[in-house]
Amino acid sequence: MNIQIxxxxxxxxxxxxxxxxxxxxxWYVPYAWVVSYPFQLFVTFIHEGGHAxxxxxxxxxxxxxxxxxxxxxxxxxLTPQGSFFSQMLISSAGYLTATAFGALMLxxxxxxxxxxxxxxxxxxxxxxxxxxxxxxxxxxxxxFSPFTVVSGAVITLGLLAAAKYAGPRVRNFLVSFLxxxxxxxxxxxxxxxxxxxxxxxxxxxxxxxxxxxxxxxIFWALFWAVVSFVILSLAxxxxxxxxxxxxxxxLPFEDSPLEV
Length: 260
Known about the structure:
The chain is mainly α and 260 residues long. The chain is 70% helix and 8% strand.
């Protein structure tokens, strides 16, 4: 059984490789962070949105969602004591949601969903997170972050503008770039989380899991990294790999057309 990249996926693979190369280059080129900065904020919104969604789905409430100038984020949830499962799910949801969202975008591109729809959908997600959890809910406690509201509004308007005014190739590349940014940022952040788990007692999602379970934070960082790699590998397989069978499986070689 030969496994190879599907022919109809090869143009998409080229766009993904270009997006991945550009994403990696932006991490190491001096001052290139200015270009990738809005995309890193986008990933932070998705990460924090994962925490908020997990809280809501487990019957808890979200006190606030904030994104900081340094691209870090914080989601404060109100969970009753003893809600062990809820707290575990909420703490685990951030990194895994970012990876899963990037994988979903890869899958949507592979299924030839219009880039315009993906960009508008992403804009709606950021807008909803900003309006509900970044502005309306925190108003009750006067704890909302102005930077969260401004950055969320700018990202939303930028995605909507790209969906409406950018050309087809630019839109398609932007979707691929966003997908790669979600995946790579999540993986790089997990790498940083591993380092923090080994060298300090900083307040992190893995540290929260350690406090809940008594299992060292390094275990949870590694566990999330493994799950993220599994999600990514499944997405890439669905995106670019096909199983092609020879037209005559009983013969060692396919017949070549006769030359006249």
